[in-house]
Amino acid sequence: MTTKKTILITGSTDGVGRYIAQRLAAEGWRVLVHGRDRSRGEALVERITQQGGKARFVAADLSSLAEVRALAGAVQRDGDGLDALVNNAGIGTSGARRELSADGFELRFAVNYLAGFLLTRLLLPMLESRKASRIVNVSSAGQQPVDFSDVMLTRGYTGVRAYCQSKLAQILFTIDLAEELAGRDITVNCLHPATYMDTTMVRLSGAQPISTVEQGGAAILQLVESPALAGRSGLYFSGMNETRANPQAYDADARRRLRALSFDLVGLADPLAAR
Description:
Layout: E1 6-9, H1 15-26, E2 30-35, H2 38-50, E3 54-59, H3 65-78, E4 84-87, H4 107-128, E5 133-138, H5 159-180, E6 186-192, H6 200-204, H7 213-225, E7 236-238, E8 241-243, H8 252-266
Parallel strand pairs: 1-2, 1-4, 2-3, 4-5, 5-6, 6-7
Antiparallel strand pairs: 7-8
């Protein structure tokens, strides 16, 4: 009997997350569907089940670190282990007013970056216990260097600036974690899936969609499943192609600063600090 692999996809009740959830379930993966809206999440699980797949809904509002911890706890108690994690959930560029998360952090930094950082750190032992596990961070071609003098953007705030900073933070985290996990049977990569996909996030931003969720989904699925990427880690892709991110992603000092800040903000000890 073939053991099904289990994957958690954040933000998978809509858009490209929903698409890859359905695709992977059809291929035999057991999918942990995540979202804030229980009715949408349970409707997707029912659809997957009706089509012969396996899925379960786990609810959490990623603007709260307490809910991120609760989500990790629900996954840990699930009992089927975890073979892959896709940090896909996020907030787009719309909104001119600076907003704060439940923990008092700039909202896009909190949801688009910090929630995935904490979730990944909490689920890392589960992922490391499985063979050839993978972490995929869904970032963006929209990137702006992290301003370490004002990470929470108390000055000169715009939704675009906040979004682009949070997305580059994801890439710094990807490369940093890949270096930490070097030599272990786990890969972590990130990508810009497609430009202006036809999603709710893009429509709310006022942009005209120019790509499909199928195009973006194919790029994400490549990082989750492609045998060609076995053992290859710390990479940034644009669509299906490996490329280079903003130069700050390759600045070791910037990665160290973001790492230290992130562990401090989420209240975890850095496992490398004692080395």
